[in-house]
Amino acid sequence: MSIELCFNSDRAMAPSSAHQLDSDHAHVDDIPEALIRHDAAALPALSELEAVRHYTCLSQLNYSIDTHFYPLGSCSMKYNPRAARRLAHLEGFVGAHPLWQAEICQGTLACLYELQTQLAVLTGMKQTVLSPMAGAQGEWAGVAMIRAYHQARGDAARTVILVPDAAHGTNPASATRCGFEIREVATLPDGDLDLEALDAALGPDVAGLMLTNPSTLGVFERQIETITAKVHAAGGLNYYDGANLNAILGRVRPGDMGFDVLHLNLHKTFATPHGGGGPGAGPVIAVDRLVPYLPHPYVTKAEQGYDWTQPASESIGRLSTFMGNIGVLLQAYVYLRLLGRQGVRRVSSMAVLNAAYVQHALSSLGYVLAFPERRASHEFVITLDEIHRQTGVRALDVAKRLLDFGIHAPTMYFPLCVPECLLIEPTETESKATLDQFIAAMSAIWNEIQNDPESLKQAPYQCVVGRLDEVKAARTLDVADKD
Amino acid sequence: MPFIPHAQEDIQAMLHTMGLQATSDLFSEVPDHLNVEVPADIPEALNEIEVSALMRERAQSNFQELSFLGAGAYNHHVPHAVLDMLSRGEWLTAYTPYQAEASQGTLQLIYEYQTMMTRLMDMEVSNASLYDGATALVEAILMAVRIQKSETPRVLITAALHPWVFQTLVAQLSPLGIQLDTLPTDAETGCCDAAIQAGSAQHAFCAVVLAQPNVWGMIEPVDAWVDWAHAQNALVIGYVNPMLMAWLKPPGQWGQRGADIACGEGQPLGLPLAGGGPYFGFLVTRRAHIRQLPGRLVARAEDAKGRAGYVLTLQAREQHIRRAKATSNICTNQGVMLLAATMTAALLGTAGLRARAIRCHENCRTLVDLCCEYAEITPMFKGPYAYECALKVSGDIDALHQALLDRGIYFGLPLQNDFKTVQPGVLVCATECHRTQDFDRLSVSLKASLTGQVSR
């Protein structure tokens, strides 16, 4: 069932008068006619009921954490607590203007200051800046700081950032965006970084290494301290991509592993909603020697209260117009206070337990693990490469078929270095009963792979639409209604 | 334990299945010395009653009275129906719509948003949004540089741009060697200095960035600037307030050919102030430049049975496919924020949005008129302004600001520090939310505050 586009409705409607003001164009005489708009922007005007029904019905076409199990690897689709959302939306927070002076926003600043402090403690670093609006912006800030650090030391020759072949696509994209060249480092068949390849890649032109640990392959990098030491010995800095912090939260600190700067994804580890693609928050956190280069502003505490920092001369500067996604940050703060000291460690224990349990079960069903000798972190990779060669069934087909079981698909075809793979992350907020339902669905699909592979290739059957023709869509490029 | 459902029996059963004794066995690949307890600096957990009390107390301590501050973030009414819709878990707790069959709600919403933005700007293509206004302008400039294929890119930027937006440009574009030159403003009009149009540009510029209205609320005579920039073979980027484009001439209609890219801060379309975010940035352009757009883009599609649906398209531009060669590192679209803006626009309609823009302007004129009844306060610039205005204030601005704040009124933005103007003053703004009694209250307080400070 498709829902009519509210923008191509040509009915004459009487919009709700509750939303209309009686201002009249005729009253304005001080704006030159040539600068006034004379055509209509052609927006819909719905009654309030029509609008509410339209967007409610649209929402129901989505799979979401609130309605479906969502084991999307690398995204930590955990439950988003309602208390965090409600409390971050109290009028005193929502009505605050970003340019009001700090003295009259002490309530917001107190929360932000404590969040900064607690994130630094949890990661073993010195200072947090909360303003990056997403992981990719946090990454950019981190590599920009690495650049500023080398330049301040007069070392302009370091123009290369090392990135493992398994890295998130944002890592090389963010470093390129900061003016760096990218050099890839290979991964060994056991999932750890190839130290010989790392040695070969290191040199006086290397500014730093970007690494996720546990890696995107769902395993803990066992030689992590050797890796970070090698980079330091070559004069580079280590950047930690915090996408997978959920696996080690309250247990292993990036600072102890030898990292100099990192970002976190609060919309992953700290349970703020993904919102269909945003908003997120990607705080950047640094060790002592990189503090001067942090972006500004962030919150400081003095006797007279909390205040925003003024730009330091060595700072990489401002990342967006104001101070970041405050509404998201307040939600992460509430979540952290609800978890407390014991809770944070419990998160990683149960996240890893859930992943290991599902990994074990899928392996028992016959699915091939990409790294069978390794312990799962909070996620793990299976590969359908062999199945694909035998039956023609692809990872994509299994992912689409899961939708018919009321389960969102795992991440497909990432990491890029594992063929026909699915990256599966249950998160700690799912119960054993839910995991068992997922395992049962994967068991049923395993039987279909063996007995009826052709029907799998047409899945899903139960969704509002079947597979959409993306090639044709990219050719016609109908990206806005022209009614 | 909050939000973790495991009973002890479940944990034991799961460990037993795997042949493990304890959860610590799960971390056997982590070197022992890296596995540490949580420091005591992390406080003990609060329960929901305790954390609610804490947050209410903190929210209460923030200023919640009358404000005439705009300067890039505006206090507009968000319909209650919209606020309620924003709380639906189907919107909030979905991921980026990679799995189209399971994400038709978000995808159609984005398509509706893209449609709305193209109509507001009178251009053909909109992406699915970016982080905020400043980052949208960063992306717009990078896009212009790609389109122009310049080896030594320079961009000419209006000096009447929000200074924190400009600071964002400097931070993010200078590492890439993009030279930012400023287009000076005229001291009398507060607009870009028209004398410059008499000649050619000093350098070859990839793009010229104009703001409408500009940071001081002044309406720029954009048509002549667009034609001048095009004559220099520069692209034109319009940084605009989207709400006002239901009323003022939109970038697609500027000059002979229209601007090439429109971008800006989406907040005025109906997002709460929220201390500065989350908002969204918009980026709209001409059909010819679609492949240079950064960020998500949604297109209409069909399945094998001919059923209509929506998909993410041209993904080969993006970081998850193209990695280091992507048009941008961004993977965000501000999904929930688009919902607020799109649903608000659907409730207001074309006429309603224009009426809101005009009401803001009328209220701003009321505000300026009542301020200028005092000899100490005069408009800083000559010419038309829209919904905010820079006022010149003689005497001690800090004292006036504090005196009004003591009376529960935040009187605009003192023009100091990053916002410093030649003449001392304040930037004030009014929206549709201001009522007659608010203006009366300001009037009374101004009278009390100015008396004795400077003679009338």
In summary, what is this structure?
The complex is a heterodimer of chains A (483) and B (456). Chain A is α/β, with parallel strands linked by helices and 483 residues long. Chain A has a domain at 83-338: Aspartate Aminotransferase, domain 2 (3-Layer(aba) Sandwich).
Key features of this structure:
heterodimer, A: 483 residues, alpha/beta, Aspartate Aminotransferase, domain 2, 7-stranded mixed sheet, 4-stranded antiparallel sheet, 15 helices, 13 strands, globular, B: 456 residues, Aspartate Aminotransferase, domain 1, 3 domains, 12 helices, 15 strands, 14% strand, disordered C terminus
What does this structure look like?
The complex is a heterodimer of chains A (483) and B (456). The two termini of chain A are 21 Å apart. Chain A is globular, with a radius of gyration of 25 Å. Chain A has 15 helices and 13 strands. With 483 residues, chain A is an alpha/beta fold. In chain A, 36% of the residues lie in helices and 11% in strands. Chain A has a seven-stranded mixed beta sheet with strand order 1-7-6-5-4-2-3, sandwiched between helices. A four-stranded antiparallel beta sheet of chain A has the order 10-11-13-12, covered by helices on one side. Chain B is of the alpha/beta class and 456 residues long. Chain B folds into three domains: 8-61, no CATH class; 66-76 and 350-450, Aspartate Aminotransferase, domain 1 (Alpha-Beta Complex); 80-342, Aspartate Aminotransferase, domain 2. Chain B has helices at 8-18, 48-61, 80-85, 89-92, 104-121, 133-148, 163-173, 222-231, 319-322, 335-371, 397-406, 436-450; strands at 66-67, 125-126, 154-158, 179-183, 207-212, 235-240, 261-265, 281-285, 298-302, 308-312, 377-379, 388-393, 409-410, 413-414, 425-429. A seven-stranded mixed beta sheet of chain B has the order 2-8-7-6-5-3-4, sandwiched between helices. In chain B, strands 11-12-15-14 form a four-stranded antiparallel beta sheet. Chain B has a two-stranded parallel ribbon with strand order 1-13. In chain B, helix 8 (222-231) links the parallel strand 5 and strand 6. In chain B, helix 5 packs parallel to helix 10 and helix 6 (133-148) crosses helix 7 (163-173). The longest helix of chain B is centred in the last third of the chain and has 37 residues, at 335-371. At the A-B interface, helix 1, helix 2, helix 3, helix 4 and helix 5 of A face helix 1, helix 2, helix 3, helix 4 and helix 5 of B.
